[in-house]
């Protein structure tokens, strides 16, 4: 490669390259080199970069642990590469011995980049200290810095002196105990550290105990928008006292934190997890501008929550997770402007406040998950989205009279492993519903529409997905008047006897139909399937498969994709004449799980002149394609777990190869591949 002396751009990021070609130093005209990999077994060290002075954009130097001599790092002349914008320096040896620490520090010291650099990332560095150049004020263009897994550095460099720095992330350190004056740096009396910093992240600093804040007038982070402290289990304090423009504060898994939260008049988002000190929680009330609050695994939440919510009058979103002491929410204490409420894994919570019916008329989204003691929900007519998951005891509020509508604006409803008391679902009470997803509701037996609403059009309904409802038997008598329904998915409903009636006239917009593991469905409804159907999946529906000659797929002018899954019962060795008539419009065909099938003869594949994709799965005994061959239009053939057929399709020598040789893309994967 060294002979390519006029090459300008070499992009090799994302490859599995283990070493660099020899004589790269001759490629003096290179403008772009995304990656340089150091290999200890070759002579191609970073010194090869010496004369590549025109490099620009991004450069990642990887596997620096393989650098045998720190003098090679100096030879790289990184300081002379003034056009580089972003530099990544990465060591990858987690088993470095103690003696290597000095070597790594010496290497990093000699890899000093040009002061024009804008972004720097140092990863898996195992030296005991950072280089002297890191944090120098001369790096006036540095806007982003990431120090990741520099686990042996007991102190931080003076990063506060980087006057243009906007984004700083410090992740994974095993020895740092204190962040103090050295972090901020020194300067004249008018010096304000971190004058441009907008985002600051501390994460997984296992021994960090103390943050000695700088304490300058106006705050040491005058432009900080986001502060995130995560998985620092020994940190006690302090936090910066005043952050005038902070909008997001996230403190996760800092169980020993005992200080107050910063004064932050502009804050909008607060996320607290595993922060049990009362002082931390009580100081939330000093942040009345918060619009989003998330609290997780906080034992004192039951006592403190009423006071907090009373003060946070601007709150729009409230998320409560894994608070095992939470048995109830304040009866009248949820903020009136609340739009989203999400509660997860609060196992002793029994009810939500009835007062929400009158007081929370702005609430649009309610999400409840894994609250196994919850028994009831209030009626909230403003809801647009309702999700109930793993709440077996909860009862879905339903009106007793057809003239009442509890859900006039609800467009999205997801019920999963919940509402065991619900045996019949009244579709007509959800007039604006667009998406309905019901999964594993064990006692649901039917969908119904009351007699007085039998002619109601469910024109808003676009998607229905029903999965794993073992006792579901039927859809409403007369069918679904859902002229805009586009997707209908029904899976693993063992007792369901039939699909909705009059599908061909009532579901005129239906585009996708998925039916799987419904063994009691005997046939499609009278009149057949809607003519707009473009995608059909039929899987493991044995009785339905027996009526395949009556499916009438050849009459569906829009059908483009068909998936047929036979199931594990087996028995079918070959297709008989007219086993299944397929439309010539098919673009994609999947055939799966016919364990005894030996041939694809008589399926009429040769007549599918629009077919471009054929996929065959799990047909262990299948050994041949049709005698008439496959259509010339086919461009993709995929064969998975068909060992006999795969062997017979070997390039140039398999008995079936001549039938598929014209196909541009062929993929064959066996069970052991």
TrEMBL record:
Coiled-coil ranges per UniProt: none
Ranges of residues in domain R13L1/DRL21-like LRR repeat region: 47-171
Signal peptide: none
Gene3D superfamilies hit by this protein: Ribonuclease Inhibitor (3.80.10.10)
Residue ranges of domain Disease resistance protein At4g27190-like leucine-rich repeats in the record: 403-518
Classification via InterPro entries: At4g27190-like_LRR (IPR057135), LRR_dom_sf (IPR032675), LRR_R13L1-DRL21 (IPR056789)
Organism superkingdom: Eukaryota
Protein name: Putative disease resistance protein
Source organism: Vitis vinifera
């Amino acid at each position: 490669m060294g002979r390519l002396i006029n090459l300008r751009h070499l992009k090799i990021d994302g490859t599995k390259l283990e070493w660099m070609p020899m004589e790269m130093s001759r490629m003096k005209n290179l403008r772009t080199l995304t990656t340089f990999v150091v290999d200890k077994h070759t002579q191609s060290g970073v010194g090869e970069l010496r004369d590549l002075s025109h490099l620009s954009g991004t450069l990642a130097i990887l596997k620096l642990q393989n650098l045998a001599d720190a003098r090679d790092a100096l030879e790289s002349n990184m300081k002379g590469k003034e056009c580089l914008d972003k530099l990544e320096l990465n060591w990858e040896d987690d088993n470095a011995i103690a003696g290597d620490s000095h070597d790594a520090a010496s290497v990093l010291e000699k890899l000093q980049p040009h002061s024009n650099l804008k972004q720097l990332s140092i990863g898996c560095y195992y030296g005991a200290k950072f280089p002297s150049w890191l944090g120098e004020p001369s790096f006036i263009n540095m806007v982003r810095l990431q120090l990741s897994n520099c686990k042996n550095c007991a102190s931080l460099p003076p990063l506060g002196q980087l006057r243009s720095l906007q984004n700083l992330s410090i992740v994974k350190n095993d020895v740092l105990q204190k962040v103090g004056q050295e972090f901020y740096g020194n300067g004249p009396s008018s010096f304000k550290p971190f004058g441009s910093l907008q985002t600051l992240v501390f994460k997984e600093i296992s021994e960090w105990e103390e943050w000695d804040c700088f304490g300058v007038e106006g705050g040491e982070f005058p432009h900080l928008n986001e502060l995130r402290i995560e998985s620092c289990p020994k940190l006690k304090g302090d936090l910066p006292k005043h952050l005038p423009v902070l909008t997001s504060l996230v403190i996760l898994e800092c169980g020993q934190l005992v200080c107050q939260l910063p004064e932050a008049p502009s804050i909008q988002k607060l996320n607290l997890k595993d922060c049990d000190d009362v002082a931390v929680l009580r100081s939330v009330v000093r942040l009345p501008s918060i619009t989003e609050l998330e609290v997780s695994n906080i034992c004192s939440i039951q006592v403190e929550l009423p006071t907090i919510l009373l003060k946070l009058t601007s709150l729009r979103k409230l998320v409560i997770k894994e608070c095992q002491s939470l048995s109830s929410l304040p009866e009248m204490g949820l903020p009136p402007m609340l739009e989203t409420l999400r509660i997860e894994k609060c196992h002793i919570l029994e009810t939500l406040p009835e007062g929400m019916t009158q007081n929370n008329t702005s609430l649009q989204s309610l999400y409840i998950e894994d609250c196994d003691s919850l028994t009831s929900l209030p009626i909230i007519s403003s809801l647009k989205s309702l999700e109930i998951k793993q709440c077996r005891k909860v009862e879905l509020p339903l009106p007793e009279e057809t003239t009442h509508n509890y859900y006039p604006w609800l467009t999205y409803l997801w019920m999963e492993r919940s509402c065991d008391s619900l045996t019949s679902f009244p579709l007509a009470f959800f007039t604006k519903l667009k998406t309905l997803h019901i999964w594993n509701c064990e006692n649901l037996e039917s969908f119904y529409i009351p007699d007085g609403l039998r002619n109601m059009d469910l024109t808003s309904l676009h998607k229905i997905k029903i999965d794993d409802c073992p006792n579901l038997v039927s859809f409403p008598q007369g069918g679904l008047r859902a002229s805009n329904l586009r997707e209908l998915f029904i899976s693993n409903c063992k007792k369901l006897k039939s699909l909705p009636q009059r599908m061909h006239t009532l579901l005129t917009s239906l585009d996708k139909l998925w039916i799987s593991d419904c063994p009691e469905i005997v046939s499609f409804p009278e009149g057949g399937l809607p003519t707009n159907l473009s995608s059909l999946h039929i899987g493991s529906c044995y009785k339905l498969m027996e009526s395949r000659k009556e499916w009438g797929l050849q009459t569906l002018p829009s059908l483009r994709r068909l998936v047929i899954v036979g199931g594990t019962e087996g028995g079918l060795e070959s297709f008989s004449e007219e086993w299944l008539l397929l439309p010539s419009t098919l673009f994609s065909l999947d055939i799966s799980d016919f364990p005894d099938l030996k041939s694809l003869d008589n399926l009429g594949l040769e007549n599918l002149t629009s077919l471009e994709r054929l996929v065959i799965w799990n047909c262990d005994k299948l050994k041949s394609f049709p005698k008439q061959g496959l259509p010339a239009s086919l461009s993709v053939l995929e064969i998975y777990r068909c060992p006999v057929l795969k062997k017979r399709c070997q390039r140039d020598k398999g008995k079936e190869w001549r039938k598929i040789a014209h196909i541009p893309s062929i993929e064959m994967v066996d069970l052991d591949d």
